[in-house]
Write a structure and sequence with these properties.
The protein is mainly beta. Helices cover about 15% and strands about 65% of the residues. It has helices at about 1-20, 135-140; strands spanning about 25-40, 45-50, 50-65, 65-85, 90-110, 110-130, 145-160, 160-170, 175, 180-185, 185-199. The strands form two sheets. It has an eight-stranded antiparallel barrel with strand order 1-3-4-5-6-7-8-11. Strand 3 (about 50-65) and strand 4 form a beta hairpin. The longest helix has 21 residues, at about 1-20. The chain is elongated. About 25% of the residues are buried.
Length: about 200
């Protein structure tokens, strides 16, 4: 009898795991988090990590153990730069970001992990640079209105909550006025998501 119950329990768990991975599903939720932004450095200046924020919505379409996850959120990027003379300045940018991520999902019973990658398009809606006069002539940033990045990340789902950590590698080169040098903006962010509903 115990052996029969054990086998039956294993079969039910296997069926539950298989159905969770194979049956197409749709999820939608909210997310918010923090990021660390920085420029790639060059001979003119170096950049330190500064904290920013993000908040928005996500959707996840899954089946056969894979999922497609488009997102839409507002991101605040804060960046600190310092020239070779030790003069420090800050720049703040607000953008609407649209990543489209593809990845794999594993786990069952409401707990699982995810890995994913994909492109991100970023549309700048506000630019605020607090630069000193001398410094601004040397490294004033012509931050573009449309930028692209590539995302690498992983996440954990616990019931309706999702925790994600990801790295965004900037693909768009940002020019500086005087020197002609170019740089990229890269981010590391951690976010918490909440699933509002699923189908």
């Amino acid at each position: 009898m115990k052996k029969t119950l054990t086998i039956l329990s294993l079969c039910l768990l296997t069926a539950k795991f298989a159905s969770a991975q194979l049956i197409p599903s749709f999820e939608f939720g909210l997310k918010g988090g923090v990021n660390l932004s920085r420029f790639s450095t060059n001979s003119t200046f170096n950049s330190n990590n500064r904290a920013g924020y993000l908040g928005g919505v996500w959707a996840r379409i899954g089946g056969l153990g894979f999922n497609l996850q488009p997102e839409l959120y507002v991101t605040g990027k804060n960046i600190e730069v310092k020239d070779n003379n030790g003069v420090t300045a800050t720049a703040q940018f607000t953008s609407i970001d649209l990543p489209v991520l593809v990845g794999g999902k594993f786990g069952a019973m409401g707990i699982g992990g995810r890995i994913y990658t994909g492109p991100l398009a970023s549309f700048t809606v506000n630019k605020d640079q607090s630069l000193g006069n001398a410094f601004s002539k040397a490294v004033s940033l012509n931050y573009k209105d449309q930028n692209f990045a590539w995302v690498f990340g992983a996440g954990v789902d616990i019931k309706k909550l999702s925790i994600d950590a990801r790295y965004e590698y900037g693909l768009t080169k940002q020019p500086y006025d005087a020197s002609g040098d170019k740089t990229r903006v890269s981010l590391f962010n951690v976010s918490l998501g909440y699933r509002l509903f699923s189908l």
